[in-house]
Amino acid sequence: MARVLHNLLLFLIRLALKIRVLGYWSLIYGYCALCTTAALLKLCWSIVLRPTATFQWAIRETPPACLSDTSLGTHCYVRIKESGLRFHYVAAGERGKPLMLFLHGFPEFWFSWRYQLREFKSEFRVVAVDMRGYGESDLPLSAESYRVDNLVTDIKDIVEYLGYNRCCLVGHDWGGTIAWLFAIHYPEMVTKLIVLNSPHPSVFTDYALRHPSQLLKSSHFFFFQLPRFPELMLSINDFKALKALFTSRNTGIGRKGRWLTAEDLEAYLYALSQPGALTGALNYYRNVFSSLPLSQNHVRSPVLLLWGEQDAFLEQEMAEACRLYIRNHFRLNIISGASHWLQQDQPDIVNTLIWTFLKEGEGRKSHRN
C-alpha cells in the first residue's frame, strides 16, 4: 500500500510539473500572438496614413562626429580565439589600472556609456564593449549563438584577453542581466557589481508572472520572439519606433535630465541601421525563455543597484526584491525623475553614486536615495 501511494505521489508531482511547463509556454505563445495582432494593426494603420513612406528607411553611411570624439577613448578590437568572434570596444585610462568594464543594453552600443568613460578614466582602465551582435562587433547569424551562456562566456573571454583576471563590472538593461549572470557564475572575477535598471533575472521572472502590469510592460519580450517581423516594425517610417523609444515623453531619454541631442540620436540610428544590426539585437530576446529558471541564483560580490524612478519598462518593486539573492553588501539607490536610460539622462547623479559605492566600506548597510 505504501509503495502504491509513493508511486501515486510521484505521478502527481510529475503531472503538476508538466502542467506548469505547459502553462508557462502557453502563456508565452499566447501573449506573442496577441502582440503580433496588435503590431499588424499598427502596420496596417501606418500604410493607410503613409502608404509610400511606411516602407522607406535609410542605412546611415557615415558615422556622426560624436563617435570619433577622442575624449571618450580609443577604438580597439579583440578577437576571441575560442569563439572566433571579434569584439569592438572603446577604452580610456592607463593600462594596468583596475579594469572597469561596461555592458550596454537594448538597443544600444558602447556609446551609451560616454559620460562614464570620461568620468572614471582617471582611476580605472575603462572599457565599454559592443556586445555580440551590436555595433562594430561581429554579428553571428544564428539565433542560437545568442544563448545566455554564450553571452556570459563572452565577458569572461574579453576580461582575460584584456589581460585581467577580475574587474568592476557595470551593466544596464540587457547588459545588467548579463552582469548579474556573470557575477553568479564567476564570482572570483567580479570585485564589485554595479547594475542600472535591471533586476536580478530570478526576481524578474517571479515578479512578472505574478504581476500582469509588469507582464504588459514586458510585452516586447513576446513580440520579439517572431522572426523578421519585429525587424520590419522597428525599421518602417525610417526607424520611427526607435526614434520614439529614445525621444518620446513616455519612454525617452531626458525626462528631467539631459536630453538626447540630434547628433546622439544619429549615432544610435547609424549603429542600428546597418545590415543585420536589428536582428543581432533582437536575438538576445529570442533565447531568453529557454534559459529560465536559473539553476544558480546567489551573487557573492558587493552590489550597487541604481534604479530610475520613472522607468517605463520595469516596475520599481523589483529593485528591493533583488536583496534576496545577494550574499554580500547591497546598496540600492532610487533616482528620482530618472528614466530607464538613467546613465544618460542623469549622468552626474549616477557617477556620484558609483564613486560613493566604489570608495565606501563593504560592511555599510544598504539604503535608499
TrEMBL record:
Domain (AB hydrolase-1): give its ranges: 98-344
Q: Which GO terms describe its molecular function?
A: epoxide hydrolase activity
Q: Where are the transmembrane segments?
A: 28-49
**According to the lineage, what is the superkingdom?**
Eukaryota
Recite the UniProt keywords alphabetically. Hydrolase, Membrane, Transmembrane, Transmembrane helix
Q: What is this protein called?
A: Epoxide hydrolase 4
Similarity comment: Belongs to the AB hydrolase superfamily. Epoxide hydrolase family.
List the InterPro entries: AB_hydrolase_1, AB_hydrolase_fold, Epox_hydrolase-like
